[in-house]
Specification:
The complex is a heterodimer of chains A (473) and B (392). With 473 residues, chain A is of the alpha+beta class. Chain A contains 17 helices and 11 strands. Helices cover 56% and strands 9% of the residues of chain A. In chain B, strand 7 and strand 8 form a beta hairpin. The chains are: A alpha+beta (473), B alpha+beta (392).
Chain lengths: 473, 392
């Protein structure tokens, strides 16, 4: 049985750094809803342009990449980020300087301070002794689960689905014949959990995702499930033995207790201070959520008085207010699907989001008053994350073909990205905005739709040749 | 008739009013498709390229014996579809009494240097050089640019340039590489593949370990049949439609355009170098242009192909000898096309020459007179010739 589940720190607040490229959620199907038209570029950043034809080529090259609007938009979004990065690097701007560092790490620094503040405030509430952890593990009220996933989608062909099933069965065969869990996880296509030994987390049985629940809740420690199918693909679920994960289990249990305690304290805080969300607050939040998609950042292209970042606080309470620039940074740091959801969310949901930010802002200010600050080691670790990211992006551009200053380098980078189906490393949203600030940029969603439609026609034409002439024109 | 690049331009202009070959379909950026493809051809090129870059797994057919996990691991310089020196292929053959053996009973001439985990778990590792081998070589991956154009050159054009008995007495006796079934082979450094599809099929089988519809039997390890349970994917591991996409990608890769130079001393020097190239006899084998005939795609049909090769086998002498094929003795090689030379950092089939001058002087055999002429060039002419080569 596998016994090599190792403890890996979970970087929950850095989700956006590790998104798999092609699994971004979306629901809008584009089939047949756009015709090619003589539109301008899909995107333009400074002196670089992503033409409709080039995007269509990328979409064909990335097959079987989903052609839904969310995926296409995320690809364009990444092109915009990398075009800005390449040009700023070529211009000699200091991508490792204080401004870039501040933009890149604002959210993580803030979240790290909040985490420290929470730990200090809650103190021993969440101290979990080894004996308490063992008792919780034995009680089965919370189970620690990991999984291996071979991914399928709604449009996956029966042959590919069958291959994925057989692959999952082969992985399971390897496990039952004594193979290691690490080796099994290495073949997982869930990129978010693959780097963390397939860890799904610590959860109550009723929190286990539906299709996996029956299999997962019957597992005894040390057992793996049979192959289970869900809409995401074919899973093998593993429940590790306590002795293999005692430290990890205790830490996750502690975090869970602390989170629950903090949630209660947060509710009490809001009851106490009774913050008031301004009448235009939800609309401001929605406009902030729309901005990054539509193209022009605030402060650029003469947005002037319409700039949603400028104006009265979004929420106030006795002795304080939630400034718009803080709200903006949080909104822009959200993953695309969450930000898109915010755009269409009803007022009560947006208000709840604002109140969550109010809570954080008060906690952050309280922490600052108490002198809570990042330890030097943690600060340096965050800086290193930024340095490593910049080095990675510039390295990828160079590996794709020469100096970032060369336009061909960006073209080649994008081609490699889609053709090799690797998980892209997104540029953190606030850093992206900093990169774009002096350049001027634009995304044309109509051209994006036309480009997607063109790629569909190209694929259909290629398939038609195959079916009618056996591949020969 | 031998045509230099500049003369070709004049020829094209003269023939513009008649139905002669169209201009050379090259691209300034390596790795791009041929200009003038239809939408469906372009789409097939892109879909094929996606396969070319796809990382294969044992569950999809990789191995059990293999050298690389995707085509682009070897063919990525200066762009996807180019050549590469990172993963040299180990070859071994036996050549005794004028007869070449590919050592089929010992696992074949391609010594696969990697094995999948399942094969290793079964107690079998990568292949070893068979003891019967008389020669080995480590060859580098050739660039694939322009192969579709090369394929579309009629056999008759190759046969016309051949002079197997050196009847013209110039010391150069190129011959067409004929396969046992009588077809002429123009691909591969030894002239051992007839079509691009053959070339792709061979690479898939020997470098990635895929079985195909034409060759549905898994390779053996040094002649020993592999256990059934080490290969999870049923044979053939690659279907014909996927093969055709990959093949179309390779067929439709454009050759790189030569360097475009502004008028001035450098351009003058290059022009001089081109003349010297002809005068010393390089063009005797490195024929500047051939022309294509009929082809399925308009972009390939009736085109000037500035490949700088006659696609014939020539004896380069004992110093260049290593492995053999049934078509080519150890010292015989198909003339390497020189287009795209400016993107290469090492030269010759094994990448052992690090300068163009070194690559030139290591030609022997039929090239002996040419090399002698090269050696007696003045410094200026020699530099001009090398600079010309660096524009290709």
């Amino acid at each position: 049985m596998p016994s090599d589940l190792v403890t890996v720190p979970v970087r929950g607040m850095s989700r956006y750094r590790r998104w798999p490229a092609w699994v971004l959620a979306t629901s809008l199907a584009l089939a047949g809803c756009a015709e090619e038209s003589p539109l301008g570029p899909v995107a333009r950043v400074g002196d670089r342009a992503l033409t409709s034809g080039r995007l269509a080529d990328l979409l064909v090259l990335g097959q079987p990449l989903s052609l839904d609007s969310g995926t296409v938009a995320s690809l364009v979004d990444h092109w915009v980020s990398m075009a800005a990065l390449a040009q700023r690097a070529a211009a000699g701007d200091d991508l490792l300087g204080p401004e870039a560092m501040e933009a890149s790490l604002w959210l993580e620094r803030r979240e790290a301070v909040l985490e420290e503040e929470r730990r200090e405030r809650l103190g021993d509430v969440a101290t979990v002794t080894p004996a308490a952890a063992a008792e919780a593990f034995e009680s089965d009220t919370l189970v620690l689960l990991a999984h291996v996933l071979r991914r399928t989608e709604a449009g996956t062909s029966p042959a590919e689905r069958n291959l994925q099933r057989r692959t999952a069965e082969a992985i399971l065969g390897g496990l039952t014949s004594g193979g290691s869990w690490a080796a099994a996880v290495a073949q997982s296509e869930d990129q978010e959990t693959r780097d963390e030994t397939g860890l799904l987390g610590l959860m109550r049985p009723d929190e286990v995702p539906g299709p996996l629940r029956a299999a997962a809740t019957q597992l005894l420690p040390g057992q793996v499930s049979s192959v289970v199918e869900s809409p995401a693909g074919f899973h093998i679920v593993y429940r590790p033995r306590f002795q293999d994960v005692a430290g990890l289990f205790a830490r996750l249990l502690s975090e869970r207790i602390m989170a629950e305690s903090d949630t209660r304290a947060g509710r009490e805080l809001l009851d106490r201070i009774s913050p008031r969300v301004s009448p235009e607050g939800p609309a401001v939040v929605r406009r902030l959520a729309v901005l990054p998609v539509e193209g022009e950042p605030p402060g650029v292209a003469g947005q002037g008085g319409d700039d949603p970042v400028v104006g009265s606080p979004v929420a106030t309470w006795d002795g304080g207010g939630l400034d718009r620039d803080i709200v903006a940074r949080y909104v822009w740091s959200l993953p695309d699907p969450d930000r898109a959801a915010l755009v269409g969310a009803p007022d009560p949901a947006v208000t709840a989001f604002v109140l969550e930010l109010v809570k954080r802002e008060i906690r952050f200010r309280d922490g600052a008053r108490r002198g809570v600050a990042l330890e030097g080691e943690r600060e340096e670790a965050l800086r290193e994350v930024h340095r490593e990211d910049v080095s990675f992006w510039l390295g990828e551009l160079a590996a794709a073909g020469g100096e970032p200053a060369q336009g061909a380098s960006l073209d080649r980078y994008m081609e490699r990205l889609v053709a090799r189906r690797v998980a892209l490393r997104p540029v953190p949203p606030l850093l992206r905005r900093w990169l774009l600030e002096p350049l001027g940029w634009r995304v044309d969603t109509e051209a994006m739709l036309a480009s997607t439609a063109l790629s569909r026609r190209l694929i259909a034409a290629a398939e038609e040749i195959e079916t009618t002439t056996g591949g020969r024109p | 008739m031998k045509l230099t690049r500049y003369r070709v331009m004049g020829w094209v202009l003269i023939c513009a009013a008649c139905t002669g070959p169209g201009e050379a379909p090259t691209t300034d950026v390596p790795g791009e498709p041929l200009p003038g493809l239809t939408d469906s051809e372009r789409a097939r090129f892109l879909l094929g390229r996606a396969l070319f870059e796809r990382l294969a797994t044992p569950q999809e057919g990789l191995g059990p014996l293999f050298n690389a996990e995707r085509c682009s691991d070897c063919h990525d310089s200066p762009a996807i579809g180019g050549g590469g020196v990172r993963i040299p292929v180990l070859k071994a053959t036996r050549f005794v009494d004028g007869t070449c053996s590919l050592l089929v009973d010992g696992g074949g001439d391609n010594i696969q240097q990697r094995a999948t985990p399942l094969l290793v778990a079964a107690g079998m590792g990568p292949e070893e050089v068979p003891s019967a081998a008389t020669a080995t070589a480590r060859v580098v991956a050739p660039p694939l640019f322009g192969l579709g154009l090369m394929e579309a050159i009629p056999d008759a054009e190759l046969a016309r340039a051949a002079d197997p008995d050196d009847e013209d007495g110039d010391g150069i006796s190129g011959r067409v590489a004929y396969m046992p079934d009588g077809r002429s082979a123009r691909f591969g450094r030894k002239g051992d593949a007839v079509t691009v599809a053959d070339f792709v099929d061979t690479a898939l089988r020997f470098e990635l370990g895929f079985t195909t519809e034409d060759h549905p039997t898994e390779e053996r390890r040094n002649g020993v049949v592999l256990p059934r349970d080490v290969d999870p994917m049923p044979d053939p591991e690659m279907d014909a439609a996927t093969m055709r996409l990959l093949t179309d990608y390779v067929r439709l890769l454009a050759p790189p355009a030569p360097e475009r130079l502004q008028k001035g001393p450098v351009a003058d020097s290059v022009r001089r170098g081109e003349t010297v190239f002809e005068q010393v006899g390089c063009a005797g084998c490195h024929t500047p242009v051939l022309t294509t005939g009929e082809a399925g795609e308009g972009a390939l049909a009736h085109r000037i192909v500035p490949l700088y090769s006659d696609l014939l086998l020539h004896d380069l002498g004992g110093a260049a000898s290593d492995v053999c094929t049934p078509q080519a003795a150890p010292g015989e090689y198909r003339t390497a096309p020189l287009w795209g030379l400016r993107y290469r950092r090492t030269y010759l089939h094994d990448g052992s020459a690090t300068t163009l001058g070194d690559a030139v002087t290591r030609h022997g055999g039929e090239a002996a007179n040419v090399i002698q002429a090269f050696g007696s060039l003045g410094e200026g002419d020699r530099a001009a010739l090398l600079r010309f080569l660096q524009t290709l």
